[in-house]
Design goal:
This protein is an all-alpha fold. The chain has one domain. It is about 80% helix and about 0% strand. It is built from 9 helices and no strands. The longest helix is centred in the middle third of the chain and has 56 residues.
């Protein structure tokens, strides 16, 4: 690996780690950097699963005390996570590079919209319809399963979508939601990595370089997160996500 590529991936990983701790949405940074490093889109997507895995594992440990309060349906959610990861990852391998390239702009558009309207959607439903999602728990499980399939296939923006579903269909606080999100996504990610590795589409060395950077960024960001404007960072990520989505439509269509 060239020094320039090494520095690009490491620095991108550091920035992604910072973003992930402060507000989430780091995949909008890591995926295009892996493509810029010379990977095919499928390789970048699969390698990205490896790069972001520590963030989820650290999250599982950090919020382990909250898991007891969400254990009622935890087994079901873990089962849905595992099955969704298998289905999504298998679809990606089966359909191949050409289909994935065509899907990327629409997947990015979906992730960007989810990132932008999630908080607004919850407030709108509560205000206009007095919506009580806890009465529709079966719908929550169904939507979560669809997101796990999406996550196994692409994964970008998955955490934001999960937060939106939890906010709509439960009374969980942010810490409980983080605990549930991290453990289910970590399981799905591990399963997807196994499937991608068997298919030979993961570039482990670049992924591990970015992973190392993300660990460093997460460590320092955890200490400074309370002093940074999350609203400003979120707005910056949204602008970048919109630009990235527009560029993907221009490139692939």
């Amino acid at each position: 690996m060239e020094l320039q590529t090494f520095l690009l991936l490491f620095a991108g990983g550091v920035l992604a780690g910072v973003i992930n701790v402060i507000v989430g949405g780091a995949g909008f940074m890591t995926f295009p950097l892996l493509v810029a490093a010379g990977m095919s889109e499928i390789e970048a997507n699969a390698s990205n699963f490896v790069a972001v895995l520590p963030a989820n594992l650290v999250g599982v440990y950090a919020y382990r005390s909250e898991l007891a309060s969400v254990r009622k349906h935890l087994g079901l959610r873990l089962g849905l996570s595992a099955l969704g990861g298998i289905i999504g990852s298998s679809i990606l391998i089966y359909t191949g590079q050409a289909s994935f390239q065509k899907a990327i702009p629409w997947l990015l558009l979906f992730a960007t919209l989810s990132f932008s309207i999630g908080p607004w959607l919850k407030s709108w439903l509560e205000h206009h319809f007095a919506f009580d999602g806890s009465r529709w728990l079966w719908l929550s499980f169904f939507l979560e399963f669809l997101v796990y399939i999406y996550g196994g296939y692409f994964g970008l923006g998955m955490g934001i979508i999960m937060f939106t579903i939890y906010a709509l269909f439960s009374h969980m606080n942010i810490f409980q939601a983080n605990a549930l999100r991290n453990i289910t996504i970590a399981l799905m990610t591990l399963i997807s990595i196994v499937i991608f590795a068997k298919a030979g589409v993961i570039r482990f060395i670049p992924a591990l370089v970015m992973m190392t950077g993300a660990i460093v960024g997460s460590y320092f960001a955890a200490k400074a997160a309370r002093r940074v404007s999350q609203k400003l960072v979120r707005q910056a990520i949204l602008v970048w996500a919109i630009c990235l989505t527009g560029m993907s439509f221009w490139r692939y269509y």
